[in-house]
Specification:
Shape: globular
Number of helices: 6
Strand content: 5-15%
Distance between the termini: 12 Å
Helix content: over 70%
Number of domains: 1
Order of helices and strands: HEHHHHEH
Radius of gyration: 14 Å
Strand order of the largest sheet: 1-2
């Protein structure tokens, strides 16, 4: 149940960034199915590909004092946009900002979901 709620929070974050910015940062056609599928694909990409990229880019990340991690997050969002129809990125810096916002909202929402389910 936690997984489904976390995916819905991520989908809401994706769709919210697209909707609230009017498509300036990210373009998502609809909440269902585009944002929901994008949230699932983003979770899979973050679980499988992101750790490998982090390990391979460790020297660059250290030299940039961790700022290269933002680029890696944007690249993961680019992968999602390439795979999921209905999701498009608008530019590199816009995608970096969108990935930061999605990460923050998903993290806070995930903590709230975990906290709420611990009470049950």
């Amino acid at each position: 149940m936690k997984f489904i709620l976390r995916m819905l929070v991520s989908a809401a974050a994706l769709f919210g960034v697209a909707y609230l910015t009017g498509g300036a940062l990210l373009q998502v056609d609809s909440f269902w199915p585009a944002a929901v599928i994008a949230a699932v694909v983003l979770a899979v990409v973050n679980a499988l590909i992101k750790p490998i990229v982090h390990v391979l880019s460790f020297p660059v990340t250290v030299l940039s004092l961790g700022l290269f991690s933002l680029v890696i997050s944007a690249l993961m969002l680019y992968i999602v946009a390439a795979v999921v129809p209905g999701v498009e990125t608008t530019g590199f810096w816009q995608t970096v900002v969108a990935s930061v916002i999605i990460s923050i909202v998903s993290s806070v929402g995930g903590k709230l979901v975990d906290q709420d389910s611990d009470r049950d």
